Amino acid sequence: MTTLTAPTTPPGPAGTPVPYRPAGTADVLRAEWAKLRSVRSTAWTLAALVVVSVGLTGLVTWAIADELASGEAGELPAMFVTWGITFGQIAALVLGTLVITSEYASGTIRPSLAAVPRRMRLLGAKVAVLAAVMLVLGLAVSFASYAVGDFFLSREGVGVPLSDDGVLRALVGNALYLSVLAVFGLGLGLVLRHTAAAVTVGIALVFVVGQLVTLLPGTVGEWVAKLMPGNAGSAVTTVVPWDPDQLGPWTGFGVFALETALLVALGAVLLARRDA
């Protein structure tokens, strides 16, 4: 009986071994970009972000423009030119979570780690690609929301010029906030490894708990509320703050960025220690 033996060298020209080249940073970035754009959930999530953000901004400014013009609303028009992005933020959080939890759910995290044994390089590439995509899309969404909102406001004579104080900062701030918020979702996904759990915790921390902690007595409640991720980070997204007691725009964004960095660092430690 003939015994089959494995070849000692991989097939190649003239039987020469195929040289092995470990994946470099550029290779990992290209792979993460390919994974992000090839997943169906990415397209749907980003489409939801655009439609909700721009659509709701247009809807609310169309509905309230006459009241703002007459003064009946009791609010400044500048508070509404990016109003819909507040709800679009959920899509950014969900996308960031799916970037990592979908790999754990499908089991593709194992071949990813086999291809890139240096786990911090893989994580860094995921963060970089996600943040860059959300920053570019965030800028587009911010300016589109502003254009739609200002169109309806200008028809009633209460338009908000870009040159007004805080307008350009808010538009750029929305893009930055969406980018970091997506990375925040990725950090939660790293820690929890479950899409539903990470999304639920993220929505609670960003949109719910920040309001509940104001019930804490005295200055403790005030400061905890200021430092909650959603309250701190969103300060940079509005032309006029909804809450005058919150942190300043860039101070609050800095706090949120630091909180996100700490969360991702915790996720990185768990990624290094836990099995895939």
What does this structure look like?
It holds the Pfam family ABC2_membrane_4. Residues 8-20 have a biased composition (Pro residues). The protein is mainly α and 276 residues long. The protein has one domain. 71% of the residues lie in helices and 0% in strands. The protein has 10 helices and no strands. It has helices at residues 25-38, 40-70, 85-106, 109-115, 119-155, 167-192, 195-212, 218-227, 229-233, 249-273. The radius of gyration is 23 Å and the shape is globular. Residues 1-9 have low confidence and may be disordered.
Strand content: under 5%
Average the pLDDT over all residues and give the rounded result. 87
- H and E order: HHHHHHHHHH
N-to-C span: 42 Å
Q: Count every helix, treating DSSP H or I runs of 4 or more residues as helices.
A: 10
Structural class: mainly alpha
Question: Shape, please?
Answer: globular
Percent helix: over 70%
Q: How much is the radius of gyration in Å?
A: 23 Å
Work out the count of structural domains.
1
Query: How does the major sheet shape up?
Result: none
Low-confidence stretches: 1-9
Number of strands: 0
Keywords: Membrane, Transmembrane, Transmembrane helix
Biased composition (Pro residues): 8-20
Protein name: ABC transporter permease
Region (Disordered): 1-21
